[in-house]
Amino acid sequence: ARKLIDEWVKNDKVIYGVTTGFGEFANVKISKDKIEELQRNLIVSHSTGVGELLPPFIIKLMMLLRVNALAKGNSGIRLETLELLIELINKNIIPAIPSQGSVGSSGDLAPLAHLVLALIGKGKVQTFKSVTSKTTSFTKLVSASSALKKHNLKPIKLGAKEGLALINGTQMMTAFAAYICIKSKELAKLADISGALSHEALRGTDKAFDLRLHNLRPYEGQINTAKNMLALIKESEIRKSHLLNDERVQDSYSLRCIPQIHGASKDAINYVCSRVEIELNSVTDNPLIFPNEKDYIEGGNFHGQPLALAMDFMSIALSELANVAERRVERLVNGQLSNLPRFLTKKGGLNSGLMIAQYTAASLVSENKTLAHPASVDSIPTSANQEDHNSMGSIAARKCYTILNNVEVVIAIELMCAAQGVEFLKPLKCGVGTTAAYNKIREKVKPLNHDRELHLDIQKVLTIVKDNSLLRYVEMKVILN
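User: That's the sequence. What structure does it adopt?
Assistant: Structure tokens below.
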């Protein structure tokens, strides 16, 4: 592909972004002696990002995904350019990329332009010892030129098409989407665990989880959730204690319909992840080179609409996990609904107990409702209407990332409240899976016997939600789908 690019430039072939300007300037022919300047100008002029910097682990994933797309051989990039990008990845030299500025249609132009600045020795970077999902911010930015020099690397001069090849892609939104997919599947299981523990504390019935019922409406997520609930509360002494002489006929929706609600979100998550897997292995450059046919096609694979719709759908699916979890939290702290001490404290009045923990959950759920408004339903034309439909996929992905983090907190709050509710049912024991969850929570936070700084408790439980140690511990006892 690279040889073809060089040959076409030599023969003065008119190809978009190779021997022409960009966007509205596509009809402006560029002379051979200006080819390198054209690509340099593209990068510096498109580096218009604003706002807070993206998390370093998202940026590193963007870099990796860009390498994956370019390595497929349809973009015409030089090997030495690709190798420098790989060196930055391996040495954890992470470019500083602002989070705002992409409309998600000619790819994530502005964010990726900031990424490419580092390759040409411009912009700011930070070198990390390692980069993980816990690496959430930059602490000490240095010039890219000094970082390259320190690691015996030389900045490159971009050749024909290389600047365009590097920035014309969906890698920012795809990086967010990939991370969100991984975490969402885990979070859906954690929602089952928190729901099951609330079910124990509220002395719910397991009749609504009978698989005969769910097989009559055979959604995969619904059936799997029902199986999870039965596995988690298996051998529960609490459940056995109210099998007989319980005046309640059926539970509230937030308990009874856990399989239907959680299951629908799981099916949505699986669908979204199937779209993201396609995007992860796609080539989203323009124009694309077909070496075997010695041809190129100017098209629109950079358009972010598939991911924009997927991320908006994911936002709704995740928000619903938090919505129903918060309703269970309300039932736990509401003495009239739970038949437990009000706000789960023995000395109500003197102590407020977990009253305000529910406020926090309600706040996050309400914030998510605003964030879940689809970004993809809006479009603003750009580049003098040459680019007259934009996906806003990067906005959809960033919103979804915020929603994901909020949902994790709500699930942590439910786990904390449900564990406290179980305290009042002792000496009765929970089921196999719910006991495991309770024990893991109690490794981090003690029962609430008097008021204390609850934000510390929330943070401790959130830690075992985020790092999956609670999920792994429970899955040592029960198999979750």
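The chain has 20 helices and seven strands.
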